[in-house]
Amino acid sequence: MVWEMARTRSLGLFASCLLLLLCNGAEGQRGRERVYYVGIIEDLWDYAPSGKNLLNGEDIENDEHASVFLEKGPQRIGSVYKKAMYRQYTDATYTHLAPRPAWLGFLGPILRAEVDDVIVVHLKNFATRPYSMHPHGVFYEKNAEGALYPDGTSNMFKMDDSVPPGGSYTYRWEVRPEFAPTDDDANCLTWVYHSHMNAPREISSGLIGALLTCKKGILKETNDTVQGQTKPESVEESVRNDVDQDVFLMFTIVDENMSLYLEENIQRCSDPDGVDQEDPDFQESNLMHAINGYMFGNLPGIQLCQHRAVAWHLFGMGNEVDIHSAFFHGNTLLDRGHRTDVLSLFPATFATAEMVPKAMGKWLLACQVNDHLQAGMQAFYEVKSCGSEGSPMLTGGVVRNYYVAAEKVLWSYAPSGKDLINNVNLTEADSASEVFFGKDGGRIGSHYQKVIYKEYTDNTFTTIKPPDSQHLGLLGPVLRAEEGDTLSVTFMNKADRNYSIQPHGLHYDKRFQGSSYEDGVAKPGSHVLPGENFTYIWQVQEGPSSSDSPCIPYLYYSATDPAMDTNSGLVGPLLVCKKGALGVNRTQNGVDREFFLLFSVMDENMSWYLDENIKLFGSSDTDHLDEDFMESNKMHAVNGLMYGNLPGLEMCAGDKVQWYTFGLGTEVDIHGVYFEGNTFKKQSTTRDTLSLFPHTTATVAMQPDTPG
Ligand SMILES: [Cu+2]
Question: Pairing relation of β-strands 324-328 and 342-345?
């Protein structure tokens, strides 16, 4: 509600802002002061105010995954934690909070400035502990920090940049050209600020916010200053000339075990003395897999307008487990000029991408690291019609029909029984492969019941269409389409539980969605029953960008339960091409060989068929919670094959070869990819390793010159 008001007001100011901008331009390059009154407050924060897992509508207590983190118990803190947070006030009296978008969650206010501007932050600490404010991405000079208020602060605190309880401090930060976006960058760069005395603990406590540094002329003049004083009527969110909105999302596992308020939060349990802080289950319950401090679909208020540009600013904080793959359902993005619908985030990195939403409705925005997905790192964004017109629907393409079934198979991760790289038996004592292929101690070994996608010739589903190439292994058929085309995929569920097909990168009506989150629309395609079929109609509305290769790869997968379904085997490649890139027989013009490689840890512990596999291949020694047993089921495979058992990777010297690589699974799925004897080109830079996040893809062109 607050957000709606703020935005409407800002848009109303547009005409006068434009005038101001023109006048400023005449004055030359002098920067402006952007003044913010920021207070540090302490308050209770609820990670799930609805009391529900809004992905499926279940109450937290009844939800297997959400209850782990959000259910309050005698020795469990639940969903509400005391935190310290930065909040913006309207003026120096610190009596009124400035309006803020609801989706900001516990983040501090967004500080925005253009190159050559100076950000002036008047910080007042209303909390019970000393804190500070430290920026990234702007120039911060020790002796030019501004006035120290004479209200109880001492020199010692000044040296530490520490503001004591009740104290105040004024920071001055310059946006120097060396920190500003370059021509190749987006118009604005994302940075953060945070408390900096014991940063990891203070960030876990909530003291973090976003900072945006922009090229000149990008920000509207709504945060204007007159003689160093912010005009009271103009303190709402500053908005931009280049996009309709900018949205900031922090993907972080907030570790409440590290919070400075842990003791106080424990005291709010009904049996605080019974809490064992070293208990792994207690610690797990305090790992909040959150987006801006919200979990399981509780993030409110991301409302976008159809056909109006949105800048998404994503950042991750935290340690090495904080690796995230943010998947935007329903619409695509341009990430540094490249078309995608997934943004990957290393710890302490920032991603900025632009979206012009085409598809209306309520869409999911989720981290595709399986553990994070299941732990609630999921949110909704909504696209509404705001009366603006966009480019018309692309038409004139062809309808491409596919017939795909889900079928159970007995899968071998190494059909040869050998480690073909070291030429030894897979169960050789003390070999690396024995861990996964041995059967002692009740381990499952090389064969697992799985479910895979298979292509058929027509809708009778009687004749299997042989795969394009042996190298596809576990992967489903390659679906191919050009911009403007329609994909009509008839899915027959020949397996024994509900499954679906959910594509990346395509546009579709909600009825044809393969994911089963609560959005108020009936979606028969999100859970196709055993023995039933469903025809998905998907459009290729946004193909490769001008800086992309002629074809870009995506994944499709079963999303009835995305983590379990994909670990069970339901995943395949999708190739989206520019117009005219595909020749006869669907193959790509000017390319001799195409290879699709899925690098993943197939976690058989998270397969629907674990119990069945134990029954078939385990023994009386099998203990499904035993660490060695669980490790033996984490199959580090390429297309479901291990130790050199992937067939069909032959190519000829001089062939033009396209490699498409995909990631899937958990946060350990970062693979260095190196093809011995051959370097390969990725997005026009020559390099020989690349990182793959879950559900991200990469295109690699190679011209082999080393026979062998
Ligand atoms: Cu994540």
Answer: antiparallel
